[in-house]
Specification:
- By secondary structure, the protein is mainly beta.
- The protein has eight helices and 40 strands.
- It is globular.
- The N terminus is likely disordered.
């Protein structure tokens, strides 16, 4: 009887122990080179506090932060977590995490104080496995910012933070090289929208527009977002986080984010989506403009090479204030071509323009997008950013490329460019029907890849090929056939929804018309009352005056002179001739940002296949250069345009 009692007590004691991996493990510190942490939202407090008990622990207070790694030689994997001083009710904290191992997404898990060794998988098959781990959400009413009054286990940062101290594998397990990391980097700044508040029945920062946008740009990304935060105020003071201007350059109080350390690269792109809370709080737009200009100056000082996108909040809040901020900044820094204003307009605003009792189809409260809306906004934002950059990248290296089509056989080829250098090329395996010619390029299915627009020269039918680099993913006809005589002459976003539209010009009257597209679906249209002079043909589009709107470039068929029409959507705003005429015999055949300076460049070709790039600043041609390779005269440049 006594033996049975003792056995029961042993079993009970084992059940009460915190979940641990097993007796013998292989341990790996967070400094292991094969362990990748999302950029810009993790910090190592040991570097700031040499007395830390865990000098190698890594800390984040940002939902949306993630890590990824691969391991081999173990059937088990666990994450070691420092849970001391985490705010909790009983054993339960308010930090929610989730992980994926290979193709299996595990349920979200609310951290317990006893999760000092959080088992991610107890019994995998032997082999190489990949782990992705996210901090999904946390309670923003808890302290995310201020340091604790005294050291707690050597850590003096905010209590509401996730602190990882290492990885545990079964004995003999080891980390494997992490493959598949995306080459680019994006830093997203925002508020509770960027943090994924209300995206599902709960909050989830791992499925927001930022995630989608980063996928389109082939980038690893860091989310830095605080609920209640605005340019000039924070209306959620219990988190301790100050306004954006005081917080953007710190992980938390007295923990500087810049200059970047530990080999973290400067972000290729910085996206600032801020202003909703300023409107809710009733902040004077002039104050928002002032703070936004100051922040842009500071961010540019810390990140001199990054493309910066100032995004009008999806609900349209503070749009005029942010337009003014961008204008003032560019007036102060006229040579900075890497600051862009993004306003997604009416399509993004639907259902997000203010508090609605019972919510809307796009939001549970009329402000915070739901999951479906976040995905749509991510694609719209990515498309608008690509338009602002003028990037038409086929091979995923971040550089604009040229699309070629054989005049006789209709064979399509791509030249992969590095400005004026042709790195290499590729043929598209499929050849279109002999009557179909490429007339434009754009991302019509929202996957971040440049697609091809064709028009049948006999029937006027328009078709689109969906591309993944040089591979055809599918195709579709546009249901409505244009009126005879109207030819597609360019592709660009003219109604501000972040999606490419078609520009037509009548070969009989010179009249210009627009088809507003949602993929291959025609959703509206407009025509310009102004008609260009005889002989002037649209040869491409681009944002030449850097106001966030797509402009039209014309070339006279006889003289070769170039004229720009600066547009406000489909409304003519003003026009001006280019500062110089092209050399005799050169025709515009493509427009894109070939040198990566954020301004549209124009590719011109003569009948011998010589190609020159004209680099524009507004209507001014500020320098020209020739391509290193001459084009075979059997081919024409078909895009981008």
């Amino acid at each position: 009887m006594r033996l049975r009692y003792l056995l029961c007590m042993v079993l009970l004691s084992l059940l009460l122990l915190p979940q641990t991996l097993f007796a013998q493990t292989s341990s790996f510190p967070i400094s292991s080179p094969n362990w990748f942490f999302s950029p810009y939202n993790w910090t190592v407090p040991g570097a700031l506090n040499v007395t830390a008990v865990f000098p190698n622990e890594i800390v984040t207070n940002q939902p949306g932060a993630y890590f990824t790694l691969s391991f081999t030689g173990s059937k088990q994997v666990a994450v070691n977590i420092d849970t001391l001083n985490m705010p909790a009710v009983g054993n339960t904290t308010s930090i929610v995490v989730q992980w994926r191992i290979d193709n299996t997404l595990y349920p979200a898990h609310t951290l317990l104080l006893s999760d000092t060794q959080l088992v991610l998988a107890p019994d995998l098959t032997f082999g190489t496995h990949t782990v992705q781990f996210w901090m999904v959400s946390s309670d923003y009413h808890q302290n995310r910012w201020a340091k604790s009054a005294a050291l707690v286990n050597g850590f003096q940062g905010p209590a509401q933070s996730l602190r990882i101290t290492g990885l545990a594998l079964g004995q003999g397990g080891s980390l494997a090289p992490t493959t598949g990391l995306r080459p680019r980097r994006i830093l997203f700044y925002g508020d509770s929208i960027t943090e994924g508040a209300g995206i599902t029945p709960g909050d989830d920062a791992s499925q927001t527009y930022a995630t989608v946008c980063a996928q389109v740009f082939n980038a690893e990304y860091g989310v830095v977002a605080h609920p209640g935060q605005g340019w000039a105020e924070n209306i959620a003071p219990t988190s301790g986080v100050p306004d954006f201007g005081a917080a953007f350059n710190q992980y938390y109080d007295q923990a500087p984010r810049f200059p970047l350390t530990g080999g973290t690269p400067i972000p290729d792109y910085v996206v600032i989506n801020m202003g909703t809370n300023d409107s809710i709080y009733g902040m004077d737009p002039a104050v928002v403009t002032k703070y936004a200009v100051a922040c842009l100056l500071q961010i540019r000082g810390n990140l001199p090479g990054s493309q910066i996108f100032l995004v009008v909040p999806f609900g349209g809040f503070q749009a005029q204030a942010l337009q003014s901020a961008c204008t003032q900044y560019l007036q102060m820094n006229p040579t900075d071509t890497k600051v862009h204003l993004i306003n997604l307009g009416a399509t993004a605003q639907a259902g997000l323009m203010g508090q609605v009792v019972g919510g809307s189809a796009q939001s549970f409260d009329g402000i915070h997008p739901n999951l479906a809306m976040h995905r749509a906004l991510g694609y719209q934002l990515a498309a608008a950013m690509q338009t602002a950059l003028g990037s038409n990248d086929v091979n995923g290296d971040g550089k604009s490329d040229l699309i070629l089509q054989n005049i006789t056989s209709n064979q399509i080829a791509d030249w992969f460019q590095n400005n004026t250098t042709v790195l290499n090329g590729a043929l598209i395996p499929s050849i279109p029907d002999s009557n179909y010619q490429i007339v434009g390029t754009g991302d019509f299915n929202g996957d971040g890849r440049m697609d091809y627009v064709f028009q049948n020269r006999l029937t006027n039918q328009v078709a689109i090929w969906y591309m993944n680099g040089t591979n055809i993913q599918g195709g579709s006809l546009v249901a409505l056939i244009p009126v005879l005589g109207y030819k597609v002459v360019a592709v660009g976003d003219f109604n501000g929804d972040g999606k490419p539209d078609l520009v037509f010009q009548s070969q009989l009257t010179n009249q210009i018309a627009f088809w507003f597209m949602d993929g291959t679906n025609l959703i509206g249209g407009a025509s310009l009352p102004q008609v260009p002079g005889a002989g002037y043909q649209v040869v491409g589009v681009g944002d030449f005056d850097r106001d966030g709107k797509t402009d039209l470039l014309f070339q006279d068929a006889v003289s070769g002179k170039l004229v720009l029409w600066f547009m406000n959507g489909t409304q003519y705003a003003s026009g001006i001739g280019a500062s110089a005429p092209p050399p005799a015999g050169y025709r515009v055949e493509a427009i894109a940002d070939f040198d990566g300076d954020g301004r549209p460049d124009v590719a011109l070709r003569d009948s011998n296949g010589n190609i020159v790039l004209w680099h524009f600043d507004g209507a001014k041609v500020y320098y020209t250069e020739s391509l290193s390779t001459r084009l075979d005269t059997a081919f024409r440049i078909a895009g981008p345009r």
